[in-house]
UniProtKB/TrEMBL annotation:
Domain of life, source organism: Bacteria
Record-given protein name: ABC transporter permease
Segments traversing the membrane: 16-32, 53-74, 80-99, 141-160, 166-184, 196-215, 250-270
Claim: Transmembrane helix is one of the keywords in the record: yes
Statement: the UniProt record of this protein carries the keyword Membrane: yes
Annotated keywords: Membrane, Transmembrane, Transmembrane helix
């Protein structure tokens, strides 16, 4: 192949940082473009989020009106409205749903071709997932939040650090959600079909992430245990609490820091599990 540049873009410590960033950006953009093609699904999903937003909002407002802010997790009416509608917008951004692409590729054997590529499957899937989240932020996040503002009104942040902390918290939530979903899908390396664990994840993640109700409604000892012992509250509850300024500034920053710790831990576990799975495939003769 004289005269032909047959170089393959990779992400590795041996390549210049600029080349690795360019490759990661290309994968991210491909994830964005992929989800941008599903226009009808985007519209349908957005309408569904808005309908459920009305249902959840009226239920939580009824709870606050009947029990008072002290028994409604410490949220006032405006904070609950913001919690619900921003939560509906973040649902598709963070990815609290069933994701089975890795499981399907393991079942079909297509994962073998992924392992031949010069980029780790964890890195490739993460870049594509960030592109998906960016598309969700540009489309499915805006409509529910706009409806919430026009119909109910929302609380406005009063602290300077709230908006950048919220943005950082959302990014960490996306990474944490990806780590959880990747680990759940990776059980297919050993189970050969991860549909059971994926179903369990889909059912449990919404409840424990704070989608259906704020975790502050639970007893304090249980809410704290969930926050410290699991990454799930960091997927939705933490970004929403940061935005509505439910806690003092120091605690806001502490919750985002805890998110960062869980994001690092989950990505490290994903890489570790992937390496162990590759060794298992070799032992099986794959």
């Amino acid at each position: 192949m004289d005269g032909i540049d047959a170089s393959v873009p990779t992400i590795s410590p041996g390549r210049p940082l600029r080349a690795s960033v360019t490759t990661f950006g290309a994968l991210l953009w491909s994830g964005f473009r992929r989800f941008a093609t599903y226009r009808q699904a985007t519209i349908a999903g957005t309408c569904t989020n808005i309908v459920f937003g009305f249902l959840r909002c009226y239920v939580l407002l009824a709870v606050a009106a009947g029990a008072g802010a002290a028994l409604a997790g410490g949220y006032d009416a405006d904070q609950l409205v913001t919690y619900v509608w921003v939560g509906q917008g973040l649902l598709s951004v963070v990815g609290i749903w069933s994701w089975n692409e890795l499981n399907d590729r393991i079942r079909s054997g297509d994962i073998a071709s992924d392992l031949l590529r010069p980029i780790s499957p964890v890195t490739a899937f993460l870049a594509a997932d960030l592109g998906r989240a960016l598309h969700g932020m540009a489309t499915r996040f805006v409509a529910p939040v706009t409806v919430g503002i026009l119909v109910f009104g929302m609380t406005v942040p009063t602290r300077v650090q709230t908006v950048p902390l919220f943005a950082l918290s959302v990014v960490l939530a996306v990474i944490g959600s990806f780590g959880c979903r990747y680990l759940v899908n990776a059980t297919a390396y050993w189970l050969h079909d991860a549909r059971g664990p994926i179903t369990f994840w889909t059912l449990g993640s919404g409840v424990l992430a704070g989608l259906y109700f704020p975790l502050r409604l639970l007893p304090d000892w249980l809410a704290v245990t969930l926050w410290v012992a699991t990454p799930l509250p960091g997927l939705l509850q933490t970004p929403l609490d940061v935005l509505v300024e439910r806690d003092p500034s120091a605690l806001q920053a502490g919750l985002v820091a805890l998110q960062a710790v869980w994001a690092v831990v989950l990505l490290a576990l994903a890489h570790l599990v992937q390496r162990r799975a590759e060794r298992k495939l070799v032992v099986q003769g794959g």
